[in-house]
Amino acid sequence: MNITVLGAGATGGYFGARLAESGANVTFLVRQNRAAQLKAKGLVVKSVIGDISIAEPQTAVNSEDIPACDLVIVGLKNYHLAASLPQLKVLVERGAKLLPFLNGVEHYEILQKEFGRENVIGGVCKIIATLDSEGTVIHTGKLAQVIFGELEPSSKEFCQQLEQVLAKANFKTIYNDKVWNEIWAKYAFISVFSGVTTAGDLTTDLIDAHDASRNVYRRALEEMKSLATATGAVLIEEFVDQNVVGLSKYQKGSTSSMHQDKRKGLFLEVESLQGGAIRLAHRHNLQVPTIETLYGLIKPYEQGNALQK
Asked: Which residues cross the membrane (predicted)?
């Protein structure tokens, strides 16, 4: 299977490197600066489950230069998706299917409308990783998992083939024909986790230490669970309680990647997470006041350091 990874940041870089390590034919479709960095330094992953160093990873800046592609792993941030659509169009027209690893759910509607429902696979990745100043992927912890499955029956055979390819790589793979529930479970959780930590400038231990803060966390989870149900997704009955109890299990000082990005003055995915939830709630005539509050408190910081310019 010929695989193109769109983006070679922490997520795309990690899973793409693992697939290349396993023998898959992987090309990284990246911007000019990242291509130059990969050419000069290679693709390096530092991980507790095994380092990887690919001296000469296959790269492309233009999708026209990729002769064959069966699958595109979309590893971008949501705010880069619109600009990438022309690149994706070339590959889909050559027969590729798309497996997005983006946060949120609105991008599925965008991709399905643009390229056809049959060409979009449902996917969730779970990993804690970052990119350092040298372009090295730093994978912390042992969590590295991909959950995927068809969103349309016509994609089932392709997913079965993909399962065999992903199974060879050094990360956990789960093929789930009800992947939409998994997508929503992650979205509902991350919208709350990122929202409360970022809006409140809080770590998990501080949220858990105060009833008032923990209650905000609970109310936000309840709102997201109701929203998931309204869209047809099925979350486990214990979703809210499980995530509230989970606060005490994080290491002291733990927080979300959005909160870390805010501290660094980076662009925040508030529109695709909390903003997306508000738009979906309006479509389903639901009220999500806690999510709206979190959104309002984070929105001024969306552009990161651009605020200071």
From this structure: none
